[in-house]
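Feature request disguised as a bug report, sorry. It would help if multi-protein outputs had a clear separator. Right now it looks like this:
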Amino acid sequence: MRAALPAIDAARLWRRTLALAEIGALPAGGVNRQALSDADIAAWRQMLQWGAEAGLEPACDLAGNLFLTLPGRDRTAAPVLAGSHLDSQPTGGKFDGAAGVMAALEAAATLAASPLPRARDLTVVAWMNEEGSRFAPGMMGSEAFAGVRSLAAIRAVRDAAGCSVADALDRLLATFPALPRRPLGPPAAAFLELHIEQGPLLEAAATQIGVVTGIQGKYTYEVEITGAEGHAGTLDMAERRDALAAFTRMAAQLYAQVGGADAIVKFTIGRLLVAPNAPSVVPARVTFRIDLRHPDAATLARLGARCEAICTEQAAQQAAPCAVAVTRLVDAPPNDFDVGLRTRIAAAAAGRGLSSMPILSAAGHDARHLATMCPTAMIFIPCRDGVSHAEHEYTSPEQLAAGTQVLSDVLAPLLATTSLEDPAP
């Protein structure tokens, strides 16, 4: 007979989640805890303290990923990983990313105190810079771990103030000189990530658990339009190499042809920078970002190519043409999550009397990159009104506890065996 799966401590989980939210807390109830900041360092200190209380072994890697490991019997077996990220948007909420790290920590603490067998390690992980709000693009830690992007390329990125990832990352690591360093990307048996849905579907369906089928694909472009400065009162319109005028034409066609391509495409123009940004000077340079998402790989590729073509075409559509450079920063195709793990999540939910449904993730997550190296799955929990990346983002104690219990119940049998094909006693 199988041993009963242990119950998590829901009160401890909620208390710690709110305590973590005090690090970088904002007046309106949200969080500003950007990657490699003082607040991020403070969050590491708190996580290390909680990990020590549960008997977890701490470590980090040179990409700034934090690991807390519950040892198993066979230390040579590939570990099961669970977690998410600690960094936030500048005006983020308490739960995006943090809920997944806190759920993994609670599951590890629960399993550490249980008599259930552990044949392999369980490692709680907090990935570095998932959000990309300070250093863009995001998901740097998981990309480095999975070998998607080189650490050298990541370290070269700079924030808006000119600080490099290299300087900020070295500062973080120097703050914890005694913390053991792990190599980048060791083998992993599986990865599980709990996250708030960041959408309204679970709440609308009155469903407690989302079994995530996969993540829609995403392209991110940086577009730089180069014209020439000129006096707003003396330079004839026909002679102007007006970068902002070129941008307005691009934007109109991008929204019409790409944003309106079908009912499920997601198209956004953001981070618009104009130089010299003076009221009486013809704009000489415009830089902007395109965020394009679609669940179908072929459609995403077709629309991406159309974005590039539109920018080139519209830069030339004036008497004095502008130059344009289109750089693809993110090329993340759609991915599917492991069917076996998805089946385990649905069964664990049913075993606790919780409703569940399959759901596609419209947002990107670190799990996308882990799926390239090991069986990977995600658990979604509802968030009020589908709101995320905002200070009033919210999920209830009951919803967080339900998702964490399912996570713990899925992890327990994965740890009990060195074969994921064996359901374990």
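(second protein starts here, but nothing in the output says so)
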Amino acid sequence: MEDVSVVQDGENHTGLAGAKLQASAERVYTASQAQLVWWKFRKHKVAMASLWILVVLYTIAIFCEFLAPHSPRRYSAQYVNAPPRAVRFAGEDGISLRPFVYGYTSGRDPVTLARVYEIDRESVYPLRFFVRGDPYKLLGVIPWDVHLMGTSENVPLLLWGADELGRDVMTRIVYGARISLSIGLVGVFLSLFIGILLGGLSGYVGGFVDTIIQRVIELLRSLPAIPLWLMLAAALPADWSPVATYFGITVILSFLGWTALARVVRGRFISLREEDFVLAARLIGARRLYVIRKHMVPSFASHLIASVTLSVPAMILAETSLSFLGVGLQAPVISWGVLMQSAQNLRSVVQAPWLLLPGGAVVVAVLAFNFVGDGLRDAADPFSQ
């Protein structure tokens, strides 16, 4: 009897396992392409972590006015090149549940005459949240003056130090995220439109059109990138407003960044244009642009998404390089490249190394985009191992 019960239990367990496998298989068979890609992308732990980093970065960029402790143009001669303040929970009076920062006392080095700062432990400034401070317009529309954190005495927080004019480095990095991160997205979407249009026509139509487009691509790719960027960026009128300059740089980067994507699209179109579903659409009288937009592009949309994700960091680095070299965005525009201009000389690096923090923000954003792009590229074929 015991042997029979053991056999029955084994059969029940086998039946449950088989039912679970069958349900899992049916779930896979009935899932859409987007669901399959997402399920495989979630298995890429580094890509998922990078995706959350990008969510945080773009949230900071959108709500930079509220998240920044001060106005980006607020300066103080009292805090020129002041070092970062440390957030503390323990002080002279013991442990405090409310975080606080100490004040500074400044003086001059008798040998180098450089300004030096020492911690003033008698000046204690509690760190508070949702405090009133410098007025701003949230999202450029809503007038407000509440900041996420600050001090009750409205003393500059300077968690990441101050620059050569006494401006808060953390505040300026937070504001710079909006320009540097958005120029990558805007530029990539323009490149995506041009690349799909010209690459699609080249691969789908072929013949003379393909020859002309490929020769233009070869011409653009044969030119050295940085000198060409410098030449086109320097051609922008000097009297343009910062907003016009921003869009001008975006168009320039897009004009130079579509060639690689067009080559990829052309190759995919050449392999797809003889497929049965494309021939069927042509036989019923569908126009070329309709076939491209409704049938061919969606068939490899996952590959396009991966390519676009990997192109965004190149756009961010291009804007940062142009601004760092002085021919891209210029003050009063705040971007990570503009902020890095102040760290060009050895004096800044030695006396105020925190001015290099915008470069760290660029590295984090670029690595996050690259890891997400790798995850999307691996997930583009959900049935591969």
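Even a blank line would do. Unrelated, but nice: The chain has two domains: 76-167, 174-379.
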